[in-house]
Amino acid sequence: MSDSSPAPTAATPVLDVWCELQCPDCRTALDDVRALRARYGDRLELRLRHFPLEKHKHSFAAAQAAEEAVEQGRGWAYVEAVLARVEELDRRGEAFLVEVAGELGLDAEEFDTALIDGRHILIVDADQAEGKAIGVTGTPTYVIGGERLDGGKSQEGLRGRVEEIADRLLAE
């Protein structure tokens, strides 16, 4: 998901953020993601990649809902709104996902339909399969310049490391 990033050029580094929307650690990582977006703007393509964890029963539906938000033009806003209230997602599930869509002025009925018909399942499945193939085991995990940085255990120093790699890639 990268609804707010420009189309990458050959010189635009890509930062994949493997995330799941029921993960408290991913909520904490939002501050770093915002800071990276502010620092690099369109010089860094930032892509949210879905990695729903089995321990969070609503994470797969949340990933599909995020893709519906992208379709409706508000992907990052939706992701931030859901992550800000992960405890509520824990309690309320899909009804909460639809409610957040309505709060953001999105077509909530279309969200409900998308969750029923599964139109975004292939995107979520593909992200999860790719994540597993490259060794993602938890969230958040960052991948930039071919380097995987795992934030699932500790996020300390990760933003600095991402910035080091991004700066090096941009200087090349």
How would you describe the overall organization of this protein?
The chain is of the alpha+beta class and 172 residues long. The protein has a single domain (14-171), classed as 3-Layer(aba) Sandwich (Glutaredoxin). It contains eight helices and four strands. It has helices spanning 24-40, 59-71, 75-83, 86-92, 94-103, 108-117, 121-133, 158-171, and strands at residues 14-19, 45-50, 141-144, 147-150. The protein has a four-stranded mixed beta sheet with strand order 2-1-3-4, with helices on both faces. The chain is globular and about 45 Å long. The two termini are 26 Å apart. Residues 2-6 have low confidence and may be disordered.
CATH topology grouping: Glutaredoxin
Number of helices: 8
Rough outline? globular
Return the CATH class.
Answer: Alpha Beta
Helix content: 40-55%
Radius of gyration: 15 Å
Q: Could you give the count of β-strands? A: 4
The largest sheet, given as strand count, sense and whether it forms a barrel, is: 4 strands, mixed
Q: Please indicate the count of domains.
A: 1
What share of the residues does DSSP label as strand, in percent?
Answer: 5-15%
As laid out across the biggest beta sheet, the strand order is 2-1-3-4
Average pLDDT level: 92
Structural class, by secondary structure, is alpha+beta
Q: Please identify, by name, the CATH architecture.
A: 3-Layer(aba) Sandwich
CATH-assigned homologous superfamily: Glutaredoxin
What is the H-and-E element order? EHEHHHHHHEEH
> End-to-end span in angstroms?
26 Å
Show unreliable segments.
2-6
